[in-house]
Design a protein that fits this description.
alpha/beta; 9 helices; six-stranded parallel β-sheet; globular; three-stranded parallel β-sheet; binds zinc ion; 214 residues
């Protein structure tokens, strides 16, 4: 038995749990051999430009859930992401933990980021969690709330690139939304895992799509 057997829930959100949360996208088209690469918490100069270089070299587009404050600090990186054909999503202004804030404060924070993220209607809550009132309000504002199907744990230094790629190979299926971070914590391990993942996805015949086209 491989190390990752029996630990599925750590890496792939079970269908039963996905059904509990109405109005949230966990996974794309199950009938299409496609996946979505997503990157949270950027843009930052230490990681995002290198990641963009890899994606460009591979001819692949991804979805970046950006923190408004970072986009404000590094507008040239945000512009490069857009210019190179990637989708951007809102990840709040300063990475708020939804359960600690009132609905109104949370929405105000998301809308502050909205102005910096050019009105994208893709949203991912930091930590993958928020209250149902917050979720309802965001949906009323037209946001498509996107979580993930496959979690790489790239923010954890105990996960090498090889370990992440093994998780991805085991749990990716049609329509999977794969979660990475363009953050200092992920850095080199994530970049290496992304390269290997793209090679594998291409070999397996997956197309790599962006969430705004879903
Ligand atoms: Zn985040």
């Amino acid at each position: 038995m491989a190390w990752y057997d029996g630990m599925r829930i750590l890496y792939q959100v079970p269908g039963s749990l996905q059904h509990l949360y109405h109005g949230v996208v966990w996974r794309g088209n199950k009938r299409k051999r496609c996946v979505y690469l997503t990157f949270d918490d950027g843009p930052i100069p230490e990681v995002t430009p290198q990641l963009l270089d890899i994606l460009k070299q591979e001819g692949v587009h991804a979805t970046f859930f950006m923190v408004g404050q970072k986009a404000e600090e590094y507008p040239e990186i945000k512009e490069r992401v857009k210019r190179e054909g990637h989708a951007i999503g809102n990840h709040t202004y300063n990475h708020l933990k939804g359960i600690l804030y009132s609905k109104n404060d949370y929405i105000a924070n998301v809308m502050k980021a909205d102005r910096l993220l050019d009105g994208t209607r893709l949203f991912r809550p930091p930590y993958g969690r928020m209250g149902w009132r917050q979720k309802h309000a965001l949906r009323q504002l037209g946001f498509k709330i996107c979580l993930w199907d496959v979690l790489t744990h790239d923010y954890d230094k105990n996960y090498s690139a090889e370990r992440m790629v093994a998780i991805i190979k085991r749990y990716t299926r049609n329509g999977s939304i794969i979660n990475f971070h363009d953050s200092v914590k992920s850095n080199e391990r994530m970049l290496e895992a992304v390269k290997q993942t793209i090679t594998w996805l291409k070999e397996e015949g997956y197309s790599i799509d962006v969430l705004s086209d879903m």
